[in-house]
Amino acid sequence: MVPISRRAGKAMSDYDMIEKGDKIAVAVSGGKDSISLLHVLRHRRLVSPIKFEFTAVHIDFEFSDFNPAVLVDYLKKEGFPYLVEKVDSLKGERWEEIDCFWWSRNRRKALFELVARLGFTKLAFGHHLDDIVETILLNLFYRGEIGAMKPKQTLFDGKIIIIRPLAYEREGMIQTLAEQLGITGMGQSKCANDDTSHRYKIKQMLRTFEKENPNIVKNIFRSLQNIKRDYLLDTEQE
Pairing state of beta strands 160-163 and 152-155? Predict the structure, then answer.
């Protein structure tokens, strides 16, 4: 826990993620990343001089084949403050059959509305270094653009501030932490069809490349902080 918490603390400091008095909504799906983030934030709150609050927030689409009761019981047992927001835009559909794009879009919309309605100052996601790098390549390969999930991102003229405290952490380390905490396989993580998605294919590609170059993921992340603008195409050119 401590090494991951320390790296999260560095990311939070580098990007000014948390301010005194922040009220943070932590998007919790039930997967290892978001649950691990709750434990990391609890540890950061113990050791950080900055005082803040956080609440686990789960969006329940009331899928016919998914019940968040196991997740809720875990949050209660661990003493994490939590909210369950029921959303009926996908009610009755099967989680195992849902389109990943629509699941993500509807979930994010619901989270944004909840944050604004309840006065949270920040919205935290459990995205880690691998997620960010995969997104960079997804944008390059499938959207023809250069962009990534930022560790801290301001949206809608400052009305929504997203933070990703695990931005410096590798997925493997979070997996190990999750196993130590006994939180693997707790519930609805990301998307049921994620293993057939473009992201999954990129994940597998990166793992293959890392066998020859262990620094490849970190290098891709650093590339967005080391842009050679003189070698980019002018915007008027195609």
Answer: antiparallel
Q: Which two tokens stand for residue 125?
A: 């996601």
- The structure's pTM equals 0.89
| Contact by Cβ (8 Å): 36, 43 | no
Rounded distance between C-alpha atoms, residue 91 and residue 116, angstroms? 23
Tell me the C-alpha distance between 138 and 201, whole Å: 10
| Alpha carbon distance 32, 41 (integer Å) | 14
Could you please state the CATH topology (level 3) that the domain comprising 2-229 is classified under.
Rossmann fold (3.40.50)
Copy the structure tokens of residue 155: 């949206």
What span, in angstroms and rounded, lies between the C-alpha atoms of 58 and 51? 23
Tell me the domain boundaries of the chain. 2-229
Neighbours of 15 (CB within 10 A): 16
If residue 23 lies in a helix (H) or strand (E), which one and from where to where? strand 23-27
Give tens-digit pLDDT for 48-72: 999 999 999 999 887 766 778 889 9
- What pLDDT score was predicted for residue 188? 54
Query: Hey, which residues does 124 pair with through a beta bridge?
Result: 26, 163
What is the rounded CA–CA span in Å between residue 213 and residue 44? 32
Q: Using the structure block, give the residue that is written with the tokens 């931005």.
A: 167
Give CA–CA dist 191/95, Å, rounded: 8
- Helix/strand/coil for 194: helix
